[in-house]
Fold these 2 entries.
Entry 1:
Amino acid sequence: MPDRAPQPVDRQLPTDEARELISLVRDIARNEIAPKAAEEEDAGRFPREVFSLLSRSGLLGLPYDAEHGGGDQPYEVYLQVLEELAAARLTVGLGLSVHTLASYALATYGTEEQRAGHLPAMLGGDLLGAYALSEPASGSDAAALRTKAVRDGNDWVLTGTKAWITHGGVADFYTVMARTGGDGARGVTAFLVPGDAEGLSAAPPEKKMGLKGSPTAQIHLDGVRIPDERRIGEEGQGFAIALSALDAGRLGIAACAIGLAQAAFDEAVAYAADRQQFGRPISDFQGLRFMLADMATQIEAGRALYLAAARLRDAGRPFARQAAMAKLFCTDTAMKVTTDAVQVLGGYGYTADFPVERYMREAKVLQIVEGTNQIQRMVIARHVAGPESR
Ligand SMILES: Cc1cc2nc3c(=O)[nH]c(=O)nc-3n(C[C@H](O)[C@H](O)[C@H](O)COP(=O)(O)OP(=O)(O)OC[C@H]3O[C@@H](n4cnc5c(N)ncnc54)[C@H](O)[C@@H]3O)c2cc1C
């Protein structure tokens, strides 16, 4: 059975422009993304043409300055766009979130010359980005990364392996964190590496439980030479840049999680109204009615939490604690709601005839990426209980 288009969510949006934007995104989601989602996810096909369409529609750089090709939208609007896209297909919502994350370092820490030179093609052109922090031996402990960048005249030479890179092998640019100094966070520097740089290659994509249309691959850097002009920020500032990017990126994951949960919930409600047992629709039974009520409540709570964090960010106030809370709560909600959606559909929910089993497999990865939910709890605990004593 084909994916159903998600029910429109009644959104609070700050401007008429934002309302028009959401309506455009809903058209794209309904007509261009959702109809092919199930088949292409099953086949593991990356929808590169959808990202070109998002680019032509002015959607690739929404939260960045219009001066450099961005859309000048507040985070509260950009995140609701992500939510709509993720409800149609997580590969697309998450892909846009990763592209935004990959563009963050240059947009926020680049010199005026660097921004003017590279950003228009990244935000308003047809380029797709990837963010390369993780390595085979350093995931949660990202500051232990080993990829090296060695200065050679006016160039840097990068050598090492990055792991789990979303858009690995299909990206046009990689924001790479590499070691230029001693051990630990202070020895890391950020670089903007072109996807076609000599010496850069991608391993075959990982065979994943879900999100199969989104390529995740190791990236090998074998003496990749790039000019100093592509170093972002100061030497040694790369880890701080990477973490600051992740604060905003986590809000993107939270919004995608709520989109996915909403799609699963819509499917469960429609099925429960249709399916008859004991001579009545199963939506008559209190056991299911209470499940649907809990699912709806968790989705609304998650949406309110990520939007509250986004509005803090839009107001220029600290939001790292709230971003970690939103990532934790929204992705746990996506896992719970998609699992419950499978239950509402009974045996049919466990088959590929309906999308809820795919949603459930996709939800799992959201509890892992951009800092596992254990790491989010560590971040929150540091804010509320202070640093650990050792
Ligand atoms: C589909 C996918 C896409 C990804 N995309 C990207 C990407 O684009 N760019 C990128 O850089 N990375 C990406 N990642 C990597 C992702 O960020 C890491 O997988 C994640 O940070 C966890 O690292 P790890 O897998 O090495 O697990 P580990 O760090 O080895 O953790 C294993 C387990 O131990 C727990 N753990 C670790 N340390 C602690 C602690 N101190 N306290 C409590 N528990 C702890 C973790 O929560 C986890 O449950 C992606 C991963 C996946 C699966």
Entry 2:
Amino acid sequence: MTETVKSITSPSKFYSGRNLLPKLNDYMKTYGDHAYIICDEFILERAQKEAGSAIEGAGNKAVFEKFNYECTKEEIERHRERVRGTGCNIVVGIGGGKTLDTAKATAYYEKLPVVIFPTIASTDAPCTALAVIYKKDGSFDEYLFLPKNPDIVLADVDILAAAPARFFAAGIGDALATYFEARACYQSHGDNLVLKKPSDTALGLARLCYETLLENAVNAKIAVNQKVVTKAVENTIEATIYLSGVGAESGGLAAAHAIHNGMTAVHSLHKVQHGEKVTFGLLTQLVLENAPIEELETVIQLIKDVQLPLTLEDLGVKKFEEAEWRQVAELSCADSDTMGNMPFPVTPEDVYQAIVAANAIAESYKDK
Ligand SMILES: [Zn+2]
């Protein structure tokens, strides 16, 4: 008999709101009084001024350390030594996905609580119990599966909205796929990211993620282009940081992310954001499913309205090389990937043909 345990896993606490950086101490103080803060260079000075002075003003201590651009085993080891040397009892990560993953891994190995403070809303890194480890040359090394999600995630909407608008849109692209992948995984009784079955709660959160984006994402993107924060921006951030992360971890992934992973082999896409590739993976998944035309058109309209790349040409593919895209299709169907969570068998040939069709459909909607 196969075991069917369902799950919902998430950070213990998620807060989103305005101007949270100076209030970091208020949120972390019940977990630790001596913070080791791994911080991206661009925000280091500001974090020291706003968060550091508040921590010290409250009688606690903070050690700031610049993140060295890549989440490698060496970088994690460097931070672990500093944590032990300074006697810190809580780890904080302030920055992009790699910084946050480094903080999660450092805290895990040192058995300390971790506070996650994202500065861009482009991926699911903040809320998940996963760290992606890279090699020194920037290539993928391994996934580090963590026994628990972060203790606290703080989404400062002012900082997230001030990041380049392209990152904000990429986060919308990543979040847009969440519901469709969770739905496929639910239908196929596939495994979610913690290797349990998707719960109804997870599917519900994934659906809320999609509905929140449909209601808010377009106006949120317009506001972010103007560097301002509105209710639509706040709601979209809740979807891209929390609902998308928890919805994907507990609801499971399917074709869209498998195709994304295959697309990492395409050289001309190396500068493309994760969420931008996932968006094209989603279009391909909808073609594989032969999704209702209204659904496809709703998704395409949203992609266009938030100014995400729609076609392969938009993504920077100058010439479509059949061999390259057959390789993408092949990779996306690897046993280790999530194509097996589709509710019907999918072959590399099916994926290749769906990629060609998805791109042609995208082209046909480009000027509509
Ligand atoms: Zn993703």
